[in-house]
Design goal:
The protein is α/β, with parallel strands linked by helices and about 300 residues long. The chain is about 45% helix and about 15% strand.
Amino acid sequence: MVQKLKPNAQKILNDIKNNKIFLLDGATGTHLQNNGLEPGGCPELMNKENPEIISSMAEIYYKNGSDIVLTNSFGGNKYRLRHYELGDDVFELNKLSAMLAKEESEKYTEKFVFGSIGPTGEFLEPLGAVSESEMYDAFATQMSGLFEGGVDGFLIETQIATEETELAIKVAKENFNILILASAVYDKGPKGFFTMFGLTPKESLRIFFESGAHVVGTNCGNGSEKMVEISKQLRSFTDKPLIVQANAGIPKIKKQDIIYPESPEFMQEKYKELIINEINFIGGCCGTNSEHIRLFHELIRRHNESI
């Protein structure tokens, strides 16, 4: 079993212990949709066919203050890529996504890349038709491509299925010596916040940390106000590293356009609470752009300069 972390991964953990906050990037999908991704198109194929767009996205986020950029690989598992007849290209497309971001990161000092790993879209047996060994191999192939491309961590993000998330963490822990982050989606009901599979934030923390994640948290599904609520709960249950990435509000359809209502200024004001709650990794999810990141950077820079 892999134990010793790669230097960049260990440095990030060491910096967290010294109270540094890391800023991730904004939305990948939103950026790609505004830069040529056709409705129903495959985002990951752009790593091969439109690499200049992917490189430019990383450059824009780094220039606006991101310490960490995510790879364009959210749907880069074989189950999702099969829909585009790209099931045999998993390793290549993931490696390219990492290489493109890594090349941009190396133009700066202390900039990093995390591999984005989204849900497979399938369910494990007995609820679904996919065996544990098959899904294990699917994650291993995707992660191998990202690792070979040079990522410093895996962000297992936008998760809803507990067993799938645990399995992804297991694959990462058993085979790779980089950071493992796990981030779940919560909905708020009459009894509080729960994942689709019924986990509370407290239960998610316990399960995912025990499975081997170095960082646990939440992304997507909520605007910044609800994310502040969740962050308070998360921090009340643990002193371990946490990650929070809010949407720019809940999207609305206006004249066939998807509009996210939370402005950079609105989110910046709310994100002050994330810093108060000592969230270690802060970023933007759906609807956020480089201007959101620039204003988040202003907040985080002031914090980091004060430590």
